[in-house]
Amino acid sequence: MNTQDEKIRFDAIVVGAGLAGSTAAMMMARAGLNVALIERGQKAGGKNYFGGAIYTHAIGEVLPDFMDRKPPFERPVTEAGFWMLSKDGGLTKMTVQGGKLGAEPADAYMASRAVFDVWWAEQAQREGALLIPKTSVVDFIRDSAGQVIGVSTDRAQGDVYAPVVIICEGVNNLLTQKLGLIDHDLEPAHVALAFKQVIALPMDTINARFGLPDEKHGLAASVLGDVSLGLPGMGFVYTNNTSVSVGLGMMLDAVVEYRLKPYEVLQRYLRHPAIAPLIKGGQLMEYGAHLIPEGGYRDMPKLYTGGAMVAGDAASMVNALHWEGTNMAIVAGKLAAETAIEAHKQGDFSAQALSQYEARLKDRFILKDMKQYRNFARFLETHPEFMDAYPGFINDALGQFFSAYGMPKKTLFKNILGSLTSRRQLFKAVGDMLSMGRAVMGW
Amino acid sequence: MFHALVAIKQVPDTTNIRIDPETGNLVREGVPAIMNPYDAHALASAVEWKRKLGGKVTVVSMGPASFTVTIREAVELGADAGYLISDRKFAGADTLATSYVLAAVIQSIHEKDPIDVVFFGKQAIDGDTAQVGPGVAVRLDLPIITYAVKIRDINLAKRHIVVERKTERWTEVVEAPLPALVTCEKEIAEVPFAPLPDLIRSLRYEPEVLTMESTGIFDAEHVGVRGSPTVVFKMGTPPLPEAGEKINSREIGVEAAVATAFAKADAAGILSSVLGGVK
Question: Is the CATH number of domain B2-222 3.40.50.620?
Answer without folding.
Answer: yes
